[in-house]
Amino acid sequence: MFIAKNAKAAEELSKQITQRTVRKEYIARVKGEFPDGEVICDMPILQISPKLGLNRVRANGKAARTVFKKLAYYPPTAEPGSPGDEGYSVVRYLPVTGRTHQLRVHLRFLGHPIRNNPIYCNRRV
To answer: pTM for the full model?
Structure first.
C-alpha cells in the first residue's frame, strides 16, 4: 500500500509506479529452513485455474523471476512429528517480474511455502 502525504507527493508516486521505477520488496514467514545466500528462481508460471486463483511452475508458462534472501531461521519448538516441527524462516523477496501469485508459486516450488497460506501451503491442493 502506498500513501502520499500531499498532492505533489501523490503525483510523483503515481508517476514512479506508471514508469515502473518503484522496487517492490516483501517479507514472509515460510516453512522450513530456507537456504543461505541469494536464491534466484527463474521458473515460468502457468495459470491452472483462474476461478481458484491457482498457478504452478510449468515449462509452457510465462517467464517469471524472483530473488530471495533468508533473513532469519527459527528452529522447531514442537515435538517431532507434530504440525509445527519443521521450524520456519523469515525471507525477503523481490519480484523482478509481476505474475499473478508469483511469490507464492515460487516459494512453493522451492519447497518453502508461505506458512498459513490456504492454497499454496496446502498439500491436497
So the answer is: 0.79
